[in-house]
Amino acid sequence: MKRIPSLDGLRAISISFVLLGHLGGTSGFPVPPSAVFFFEVAELGVRVFFVISGFLITGLLLPEMEQTGTISLRQFYARRTLRIFPAYYAMLMCIWLASAAGVLNLNAGDLLHAFTYTTDYHSSRSWWLGHTWSLAVEEQFYLLWPATLVLFGPRRGFAIAVGVLLVVPLVRLTEWYAGWQALIGNSFETVCDALATGCILAGARDALWKKLWYQRLLTSRWFVCVPVIAFALSGLSRPRFQFAVGMTLSNLCIAVTIDWAVRFDKGRVGRLLNAAPLVFVGVLSYSLYLWQQPFLNRTSGAWPARFPTNLALACACALASYYLIERPVLALRSRLHAASTGRDARFRDPVTATLPLPNDTVASSS
After folding, report:
1. pTM
2. Which of 83, 96, 309, 355 is deepest in the core (most CB within 10 A)?
3. Count of CB atoms within 10 A of residue 34's CB?
């Protein structure tokens, strides 16, 4: 087991995009809302999280399939449950208690959809639990993708993932013309291509590196254009182009950027992504994402929603969630898995991004 270089740094950048996007328009925040909203940085941050998630989860599943011939779905779901549920449901319980005390107002169905991970199909959700839509998408991915690999095998599974890349843009356009605009960019069937892109990257990165054009792309001094394109696409305001081409191109640019960052982690950018402060923010990103939404509320004039108090409170709650809930549960999970297998957890996915990496052919890669 070894930590994947740069992934925590990329997750730190992703959560920073989300925080910046949600800080825009809050009381006292010095950056004009138009500058934040123009590039949809919060949506871009979530998209990066999706691609990373597909890449990481697939990278954990493939070695297990190679060595055992299958995937233990029971163990996978048990690991995911212990990783995600405790901190998530603790946050939901706090929101419910605040609502019961009259501190905040929830919309009808908010708690039901949040508790059942179906908020991505709850268009009338309130701000307080609005961010749980992306966690619902992640949970649905966890349910579907490992089972797909088990049922169809890696080859057909990746063929299905490629099919998802081709079909989802048509789904987005269909829902646009059908008048279901509220679902686009939120519901699983309209965003799962970002997760599929990460899955394909995990399965194809070794084969891609053997292609001369791909090596030239990753080693070119003009590679900086790839993440710039992904960022620029987030500022386009033409929905039909975005749904048909823009979101797919953005996902591909993000995936290639992830591969570049993982392979070349010794340069200036790599050293920055792997610096201890950025790594810690990446490790904390799940708790930060859980707790930023209740405080970064641009519709509230209360003091907890005023910058920089709102950001400080979100960070404080995230730290409490990480140290009081996440770390103890993860330690318990490791002990339970070691006890059940009689050895150290081999295919675990702890808070830091770790998995057995494929063999790369250059010394600068991990």
Report:
1. 0.90
2. 355
3. 9
